[in-house]
């Protein structure tokens, strides 16, 4: 009975940690709302009170949030509602810790379920005629902010159960991680029998189809980054000839893949073409404002977030980063009137597009301390003893990269990937 309860609880937490774009709290602007984190925080608090002890990882998480309390006081002195931002910061780490200690309950049935849902919803979005889209979009748009049937523009794909393809991409990447880990180390998980060839084929085809329909540069980047990191780590265990063979073989594989599929080649070259054309336009007169053509406002916001931790060594206060970031951008030399995202939309608040960059901006030196300790802890956990350990280490490194440079406060995928990499 107890085991069944644990398995049921794990399934519920996994479901709402992956499908976290449901609009449970319509009065807040966040598109990703992992409310399951609230439940996990309550559950963890009760567990700590009952046991009276915490392990090293939990102790580090608690210490970090205690260190952020002075910044919270500063933030609340401006707006009491900033306490919600502090609470939002807790959701990702809480979800991370839950899976860090419970991933042994992951089953192939979970992977089948998520792949099936992504496949079905993505195909419905891609194939639905305009008349159906017009009738359904207003209804489901209430449940998931900015959700729509159909593609998000000429070179952007479908979003599945998320507000945009870029959000969906991070969770498709997570399913790839599940798939690879459960194939390479089934004994780590609650797996009784090996996958049949047919089941492997279904999962692989499902992931390929949803990736193709998603068409997100985010997904493409994450998969390539993970593969490159894995091959780099694995090459340390190989002789020089084999290492050189890998370095030559991987780019060749992607060139052949692109030439075999006109549509895939068109998608990849279109993304690349946009960046190349942007570079050609600005290369002779490049200014700091032209960074927007290579990472939009996301890259600028992350750079500004970390710079803010230097300009304001004691931070600007929890919850105040969205307003004060414009001061940092101006200090760095950005012309706010030359950045397309800011001039084309009515933007009065802008948060750094990275969890840790936002904390650094709002808490200064404390944020830098938290970021460095996280980085050092994860570096210590990197292992290249075997092919399997290289797989987990590459997932770990990619997760850290996301948390440091490419994530938002409430996106859970990077935290789940971090738990998987450390598991």
Per-chain topology:
Layout lengths: L1 H17 L17 H16 L4 H12 L1 H10 L4 H20 L5 H20 L2 H14 L21 H20 L12 H18 L2 H19 L4 H21 L1 H21 L9 H20 L9 H12 L7 H5 L10 H9 L1 H16 L6 H19 L7 H10 L1
Helix pairs in contact: 2-5, 5-19, 6-8, 6-9, 8-9, 8-10, 8-18, 8-19, 10-18, 11-12, 13-14, 13-16, 16-17, 17-18, 18-19
Plain-language structure description:
- With 423 residues, the protein is mainly alpha-helical.
- The longest helix is centred in the middle third of the chain and has 21 residues.
Number of helices: 19
Number of strands: 0
Q: Which residues sit in consecutive blocks of at least 5 with pLDDT less than 50?
A: 255-269
Give the averaged pLDDT, no decimals.
81
Shape: globular
- Give the C-alpha Rg: 22 Å
Task: Describe what is shown at a glance.
With 423 residues, the protein is mainly alpha-helical.
Characteristics:
423 residues, mainly alpha, 19 helices, globular
